[in-house]
Amino acid sequence: MFWLLLVIVGLAAGTFGSLIGLGGGIIIVPSLMFIGQIFPEFSNITPSIAVGTSLLLVVLTSLSSTLFFAKQKRVDFQSGWLYFLGSGPGSILGAYFTRYFKADSFFIAFGLFMIVISIILTIKDRLPVKRIHWDVSRTFVDGFGQKYEYGYHRVMVVTISFFIGMLSSLFGIGGGSLLVPVMIILFAYPPHVATATSMFIILLSSSVGSITHLIQGNVHFLAALLLAPGAWLGGKAGAWISSKLSGKGLLIVFRVSLILMAIRMILNGFHII
């Protein structure tokens, strides 16, 4: 029974994570914590192990979706490497800090974190798009011939992405819940380019974070093995669905999903459900 449940969780996480550029950890982490409370085989899953296992699966999901997005020429590899310059070291630091989290505070902190992000995305249209000076201006043409113009400040990108990498490794979510809003609000990335490029950055930073968690022994290998097939297929499925949605549609799915998951985790942290 539990193996089928994990396959379904992996598929859902991969599809959802790839769809909006999250990476899938937003589903895998709480699911592993809940499963650990039900099945004896997974009773040793702690927040640190849930995060470490999640990041390992995020690598699969992000690789699967990045390959799909690359065929559509939606990934801005040039800026993606710059984000990784900061998020890579940050992910190592975040992996170290997971050992200090207890289950209840972990749920509550994770939920509040997602609510803040959803609020930022809700009010983003009332904020000025170009709030800082860009020292790089980009013109990007995707595989469908659509032309986009946006930009970024290199020092700010590295600085912000360092903290994003730390939080992503800390919460096991791959960083997309922060990367995508930063790209859209501060640097005017189109949503489709932001989500696709986010998955590439997540692939790089989650790989680094996963190595750190493996060294610390924060991976449940049986759970990872059962989650892997669904995560890989879901990564491709989410990328395909994303290509069929408008930019506005992607943001609506992103906001609603974050709020629902956040409420569920906060209530669980307070033992209300």
TrEMBL record:
Record's GO cellular component terms: plasma membrane
Keyword Transmembrane helix part of the UniProt annotation: yes
Keywords (A to Z) from UniProt: Cell membrane, Membrane, Transmembrane, Transmembrane helix
Keyword Metal-binding in record: no
Matching InterPro entries: TM_pro_TauE-like (IPR002781), TSUP/Inactive_protease-like (IPR051598)
Subcellular location per the Swiss-Prot or TrEMBL entry: Cell membrane; Membrane
Transmembrane segments annotated in the record for this chain: 49-69, 81-99, 105-123, 155-188, 194-215, 222-243, 249-267
Membrane topology category: Multi-pass membrane protein
Pfam entry (one): TauE
Family: Belongs to the 4-toluene sulfonate uptake permease (TSUP) (TC 2.A.102) family.
Protein name per the record: Probable membrane transporter protein
Organism: Thermoflavimicrobium daqui
